[in-house]
Structure formats: structure tokens, C-alpha cells
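Record filed here:
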Amino acid sequence: MKICMDLHTHTVSCGHGYSTLKENIEAADKAGLLFLGLSEHGPALSGGPNAMYFGNYKCIPRQYGTLRLLCGAEADIMDYEGRLDLEERLLEKLDYVIASMHVICVTPGSRRENTRASIKAMQNPYVKILGHPDDSRYPLDYEELVRAAKEEQAALELNNASLHPQSARQGGRENIRTLLDTCAKYGVPVLMGSDSHICYSIGHFEAALEMIREVDFPEELILNDKPERLGKFVNIDL
């Protein structure tokens, strides 16, 4: 498998990242990626950029040699109805949107409430990726979630950072195993994301790939080596 994309990355602009966009671009090029996604947190997360940041993406060149930059966002899910912290007028201008739950933005609810919030977010026409659905602080009904992702033609993220020993998320390994088993059962694709907050982890998915091997997850359901399928999950023509 030749990894060609990393769509979940952050820079100093998110308030708790440690690399510049230039450093991330250079790291992505060094890693041999074809697509690098810029996915800063929405404004509801402490330190996140304001709406003007996302509205000014037009100033960023999109092509750097063989590397193409996709300008998106990791929008924050704000309630159990799946509402996001970015307005539709901004979402429609982005190349892609990841929707994720963070404890600063939405209080963890019951399994039913968290699952509803995630599904409602995926029903947003601009959301094609659900970020890190693997945190035991937000218990999820994976059967219901994966069936909904299949219906909405959305991808579920296999977040490499959730497998880090010092991750603030809880139960990542066990939850990801369940997520992968359920995705394999229903034929739902996953997108590996580094969730990089420093350039040195751009394009690195070692922990995620190890988990994929452990559960014998079907390679055809992994999107990161399939640029021809990327167009289904972004809002632009490739």
C-alpha cells in the first residue's frame, strides 16, 4: 500500500499545534504524499481560528510540485443534533469537512445521544468524514453509526493519534478494533488521519497500519492509497 494522502493535520493556527503550514507542506512532500489536507479546528475549540481564517483560503496556493493542498476544516460538533461551529456559507467554500466531537465543545452524552450527534453531523451535505469516532468518553453504537455512514456515503476516520500511548482519548485501541470490524462487515471505507499537530507526524500511520494488520481489515476499504476515490469525499473536482 502506497499512502498518498493525509487529510487530518493542524498547524500553529489551531492554537495547540507546533508547526507552520510551510513546515507541514515540506514534511508532506518529503513523505511522498500527493494530497495534504489542512484541517484546522473550528472557532468553538479554544485557540481555534475564527471564521475569517477559513474564508481567506483563497490566498493559499494549492499546488506545490506534485503535492496538492486541500483546504478544509475539522468542524466541531456542538450538540446532539450534530450542529457544527462553522456556518454553511463557509462550509460550502471548503474543499472538505471533518466533523468531530471534543469535550471543550460538547458534553459527552449517552451512547444514544453521541451516536445521534455523529449521524446528524454526517447528514450535513458538506461533511464526508467523521473524525476520531473512537473515544470512550463518547460511547457510540458502532452498528448504527457504520450503517448510517454507508447510507450517507461518508468515511469514518482511523485516527493514528488515538493510538498514541499518551492520547487524551480513552479506549482507542479497543474502540478502533470494533470500528474496523463493523466497517468490514458493512463495507464502509475508512480514512487514516495522522491528526498531526507537528510536522514530524505528517503522513505517518504506523499505529493505524498495525491495527489494520491485526484485524485483517480489507485493503480495498482503506482510502489513503486510492486517489481516484478521493473525489467522493471532497467538495471539489480533482
Remarks:
- The chain is about 30% helix and 15% strand.
